[in-house]
Write a structure and sequence with these properties.
Layout: E1 5-10, H1 40-46, E2 57-61, H2 65-75, E3 80-84, H3 90-104, E4 109-114, E5 118-120, H4 124-128, H5 131-135, E6 139-144, E7 154-161, E8 169-176, H6 180-189, E9 192-202, H7 203-213, H8 215-226, E10 229-231, E11 234-236, H9 239-242, H10 250-255, E12 261-266, E13 269-271, H11 276-281, E14 291-293, E15 296-299, E16 305-308, E17 313-316, E18 321-325, E19 330-334, H12 341-350, E20 365-366, H13 372-379, E21 384-391, E22 396-399, E23 406-411, E24 414-417, E25 422-425, E26 430-432, E27 439-443, E28 449-456, E29 470-471
Parallel strand pairs: 1-2, 1-4, 2-3, 3-11, 6-12, 14-16, 15-17, 16-18, 21-29
Antiparallel strand pairs: 4-9, 5-13, 6-9, 7-8, 7-9, 8-12, 10-11, 18-19, 20-21, 21-28, 22-27, 23-26, 23-28, 24-25, 24-27
Helix pairs in contact: 1-2, 3-7, 3-8, 7-8
């Protein structure tokens, strides 16, 4: 039997698990449990390392390239990495992977798996049992037997057996996030499954079906792959073509419209971990029902989750509460109200708070660039100062207009974006501030990046601490 290629889509902004998950460091790259646990993304990779699986294909945003490569390196996993210049939903992401792999192996069979779900149970055997259906040109979607009437999930309604298949079955219809009474009715009939987000098909099948519904997007993605370039072991898609692809999920673009779509059941424990309450639910609590990560002291607490990422956190007398403490933001919420975290994020967006985008970072530290006996004279100049900064993997820093006239990349590869532009800069490259607004500089490397700055200072400028400052 041919090997199955796992296709892991690492998109999404991760607002539901704020303040740990942010746009520059979303949920899939966060650890599921304590400091020694794997991230959601690493767990997805690990689940598909059996003999039946080939090396995975990873599709991620350009700003997450370094994080993906570093987390793959930690697992000692080889993968084909594709970087999107901007998010266009899962449809174009899957298409780009199909186009890329068709040139390497026209017989590629994908199993598409989410990067940010928690799954416990046997996957290799039930997925392998559907290879025949995929090879015959069917699209197989995998469903989970529902445990309760959940409004936040999509449902697959069974349409009966297929005459030529032993496992894959017809799909009568898809129901997207139904109201509670409708979800309950679907469950009582015993013919509906939670849509797991896992699917399986030949690369050639998804491309041909996509072309029958949206040929323009197929053309744009073909061009994005053909005109893309290899950078540091990843294919970076051409932005001018990819941005023209219609931003649609694969489900609505193809699955819900194709006569080739089927479904198969998966008997596993599955959760998309869409809230802090759900995150608590996939952990292993202590005798009091508490989940404590980090430096935490809990007294008379029950059924409570506390995550301390940067300092000691003490709680007394809490019950059914979530506490999440990061280096620059604190969340405290009742367990049954954690779905409203997205509302908090929306409020922060209105005031343009940086905490929804990335972790707050240090400013460049001033360092002596000449022999010590004349360094003080330069350090106290009223005209300029020289500084340095280090940006951790997957992290970003901001240069406000006027902060520095230029930054020189000493080590690593960075993505810089201003109010009306963006570019990627390698070692020896320069980044200039923009009078129209702030610049965000993101580390794309799989190791810390280093920069030198020439900063113009006001007459009353006083140099801060010397030495290198690590961001995040």
């Amino acid at each position: 039997m041919a090997q199955i290629t796992p296709l892991i889509i690492c998109g999404g902004n991760g607002t539901r698990l704020w303040p740990v998950s942010r746009r520059h460091s979303p949920k899939q790259f966060q650890r599921i449990g304590g400091p020694d646990s794997l991230t959601f993304f690493q767990s997805a990779v690990q689940r598909h390392r059996a003999a039946v699986f080939a090396d995975p294909v990873i599709v991620t945003g350009r700003i997450h390239q370094g994080t993906v490569q570093k987390q793959l390196q930690d697992l000692q996993v080889k993968a084909n990495v594709i970087c999107e210049p901007m998010g266009r939903n899962t449809g174009p992401a899957v298409l780009a992977a199909a186009e890329y792999m068709l040139k390497k192996d026209p017989d590629t069979i994908f199993v598409v798996v989410p990067a940010d779900h928690v799954i416990e149970g046997e996957l290799a055997q039930p997925i392998a049992s559907c290879v025949g259906a995929a090879d015959a040109g069917y699209i197989v979607t995998f469903g989970i037997t529902p445990r309760y009437a959940e409004e936040g999930f999509g449902y697959i309604v069974d349409g009966g057996p297929l005459p030529d298949q032993a496992v894959a079955r017809r799909v009568q219809r898809f129901v997207e996030k139904p109201k509670s009474d409708i979800a309950q009715s679907l469950i009582e009939k015993g013919t509906a499954y939670w849509a797991s987000g896992i699917s399986m098909f030949r690369a050639s099948t998804i491309k041909s079906e996509y072309a029958s519904f949206d040929s323009e997007t197929v053309t744009h993605v073909e061009q994005a792959v053909a005109n893309g370039r290899m950078e540091k072991g990843a294919l970076c898609l051409a932005s001018d073509s990819f941005m023209q692809a219609n931003a649609q999920p694969t489900e609505s673009a193809v699955f819900e419209r194709s006569e080739r779509t089927t479904h198969a059941p998966l008997d596993v424990n599955w959760d998309d971990v869409g809230s802090w309450k759900a995150m608590y639910g996939v952990q292993h609590p202590d005798a009091d029902g508490n989940v404590l990560h980090g430096d935490v002291v809990a007294l008379d607490a029950r059924n409570t989750m506390v995550r301390a990422d940067s300092r000691l956190v003490s709680v007394i007398g809490l019950e059914d509460v979530i506490v999440v403490d990061t280096e620059d933001a604190l969340l405290v919420a009742r367990m049954d109200k954690t779905q409203n975290v997205k509302t908090i994020v929306d409020e922060l967006k209105k005031t343009k708070r940086v905490e929804i985008e990335r972790y707050q970072e240090a400013k460049p530290a001033m360092v002596p660039m000449v022999p010590q006996d004349v360094a003080s004279e330069l350090a106290q100049s009223s005209n300029y100062h020289v500084g340095a900064a280090e940006i951790a993997v997957g992290r970003a820093m901001t240069l406000e207009a006027g902060d520095a006239r230029q930054a020189l990349v000493v080590k690593g590869r960075l993505h810089a974006s201003g109010p009306e532009w963006q570019k990627t800069v390698g070692e020896g490259g320069r980044i200039y501030t923009d009078p129209k607004g702030p610049i965000t500089i993101t580390n794309l490397s799989d190791e810390p990046a280093e920069l030198l700055f020439v900063t113009l200072s006001s007459p009353d400028f006083q140099p801060k601490s010397l030495g290198k400052v690590a961001n995040g």
